[in-house]
Amino acid sequence: MKTLFTLLFLFTALAHADEPGSQYKQQAEAGDARAQYYLADTYFSAGDDTQAEQWAEKAAKGGDIDAMALLSQIHFKHADYAEAKTLAQQATIAGSKRGAIMLARLLVNTQAGKTDYPQAIKLLQTATEDIDSDSAVDAQMLLGLIYANGVEMAQDDAQAQMWLKRSSALSRTGYAEYWAGMVFQQGEKGFIAPNKQKALYWFNLSCTEGFDTGCEEFDALSGE
Question: Which of 1, 164, 169, 224 could form a disulfide with 176 if both were Cys (CB 3.0 to 4.6 A apart)?
Answer without folding.
Answer: 164
